[in-house]
Amino acid sequence: MFSEAILFHELPLESDHSPLRLQLFGIKDNRPRPFRFDERWLNKEECEEIINRNWENGSNCAEKLANCENELRSWARQVYKDQNQRALDIQKRLTELLELDRDEGIVQEEKDLMAELAAIWKDEELFWSQRSGVNWIHHGDQNTKFFHTSTVQRNHRNKIITLKDDLNNVINKPEEISDHVTDYYKSLFTCSSQAPDPSILHDFPKLVTEDMNQKLCSLPSTEEIKAAVFDLGPRKSPGPDGFAGLFFRRFWGKIGEEFCKEVQDFFNSSMMPHGWNNTHIALIPKVLAPEKISQFRPISCCNFRYKVISKIMASRLKLWNPGLVSEMQAAFTGDRLIQDNIIMVHEVLHHFKNRRKSGNWDMMLKLDMRKAYDLVEWDCLEAILQAYGFDHIWRGWVNQCIRTVTFSILLNGSPTESFTPSRGIRQGDPLSPFLFILLSNALSFLIDKGVQKGDIQGIKLNRNCPVVSHCLFADDTVIFGKASMREASQIMNILNQYGSVTGQEINVAKSSVFFSKNTPEAIKDLITTHFGFPPTICHDKYLGVPTEWGKSKKETFSFLIERMEKRADSWKSLLLSPGGKEILLKAVLQAISTFIMSTFLLPLSITNKMDSILRRFFWAGSMKKRSIHWCKARVLEDPKQVGGLGFRNFHLFNLALVGKQVWRMLTNPDALWVKLLKGLYFPDRDFLSSRKGRCGSWIWNGICDTKEALKPDIF
């Protein structure tokens, strides 16, 4: 009832007891909300007339969109002002018509009223659907109440009512919160006073060829621009101009020609059109109940016009990235997957756990980069692009994308004052991930250089395995080496060099170091003191996968059961019909375990429990209720073509997902992770004739079991 209630602990005054002050309602925030193009308007002929009329006036896209915004605001205010009351009036009139004698006029009036009421209900569903952030429901019954509940819950979860500053003083006035948030991000996005020294890049390999530059720097055709428009999500949050992709898709026939011309003008002139690069920053909580502004993740909501430019550049760069970045980087590079790194790290930790020989000690550093995207130094990024050999035209486009941005923070739905950053790349910009992995490749370059010089040895799990020195997935960094002070010092020097050039900082509190089982405690203490973060005995996860495990798979993967039960318990099942629940279960509950099941073959006790959770929620609508199951479990899993509902059998789906790794091992034997597994488990034979080892890891044993299960039908 009181969703904005706050309890304050006041200072004791005349008593030795601290008074408690309960504030039931938040302080009203009257700041204006930004314009958003409403998906409901697409069903109105008047909307199309407004767009057509305003697109004939104005000198450029920005001016025409502004004119459309002004007229759409006033038009929508009139059209939707009394819609709820109109729905009630229609329902009242329909009730009256039921009492009258039927004739042709009454039947026609009833049909007209029903059609009008259905249109109002459809409008209401679209309104709440667009605001709910739910994008997995494509068909089914009317979900207005579900979407409304989702929107209210999300708004409440993201709303900032109070914050604490660096001195733990409580801030609860909207103006003070706004100033505090803006000052924090102004400071975060301001470049360091120390200019980065790119001298370490003097022997960086020049990998971009003249042919690559010609293709990267060519003028995009209208077909390429249109493809970018239709590839971007139509309902993704819009930027400050308020026009999402669905607007550009719907009216492409009218606006496409002029829009393509202005996009091509950017690529011809290397000048970003005024206002295109304005950006809202949405604050997404990283923890359940954030108290400080640092506990929010800044996600950039760019104008769709800008994102089309960024998407074109990202799509071109994506084609060449596999040849530009180290094979140790698994993110956004061709056919490399996140599972590659998970498998390698799991095998290393399995090796650490079983290592008992003395005198050969190994370590693994798991590094967390603080505000990785936000701290990227622009000058360093440009120096790295130049070292790669990117043409000055391409570098000019990149500079326009990152240096012309203007930020304003979306605080409880309203933008704060705007400011101009001097460093950082945006989470939410299609180009940013590709720029970041080019930047992070400098770390791979420095580590590889250290290995070549003998400063770093990396680790070699046995004589048949390749040397592995590090692996990266975007900013998730793992470095392997010998557990010695000499190697620890060399690694620290490399990290300091990398940080001084790029602006990247290690988050000591979230980083950790693992040691092989035989490493003496004295060596562990020396190395952990040197790095400044503790050894990990029971660390939680790497890339979402447990890094520590015991003998029981059931216990290790029980968190999947807990996560599914918690999610199912949180749903308001009464809001959904059986058809709605079916879509919800398939889109959300069945997807929770997909990532883990892509690498590990789970025990049957876990997958059977997952099947049970799904069936129980479908029939009872709650994990705390029992209900009659009106058909056999097999019927729910049968395809719809034969009368089932098409729910997945989790064990069979698990076999299919791990089977993908089996197929990748057969078709890509030169991948580093495949070479590692071959050196460990089948150095003298082919993969199809390999067997589970006595001390095989969970991943390897799961791959072998899957291979044997698939053999009769595939191999």
| Low-confidence parts | 134-142
- What is the molecular shape? globular
- The tally of domains stands at 4
Query: How many alpha or pi helices?
Result: 26
Strand order of the largest sheet: 6-5-9-10
Give me the Rg, rounded: 29 Å
Taken as a percent bin, the fraction of beta residues is 5-15%
Residues in helix, %: 40-55%
Amino-to-carboxy terminus distance: 61 Å
Average pLDDT metric: 83
What structural category do the secondary elements indicate? Answer: alpha+beta
The description of the largest β-sheet is:
4 strands, mixed
Count of β-strands: 16
Domain Reverse transcriptase: 265-528
Pfam family, one: RVT_1
Protein name: Reverse transcriptase domain-containing protein
Organism: Linum trigynum
Structural write-up:
The structure is a single chain. The chain has 715 residues and is an alpha+beta fold. The chain has four domains: 120 residues, no CATH class; 181 residues, no CATH class; 138 residues, Alpha-Beta Plaits; 167 residues, no CATH class. The chain is 50% helix and 9% strand. It is built from 26 helices and 16 strands. It has a four-stranded mixed sheet. A four-stranded antiparallel sheet has the order 11-12-7-14, with helices on both faces. A two-stranded antiparallel sheet has the order 1-2. A hairpin with a 2-residue loop joins strand 15 and strand 16. It is globular, with a radius of gyration of 29 Å.
Keywords:
9% strand, 715 residues, 16 strands, 4-stranded mixed β-sheet, alpha+beta, 4 domains
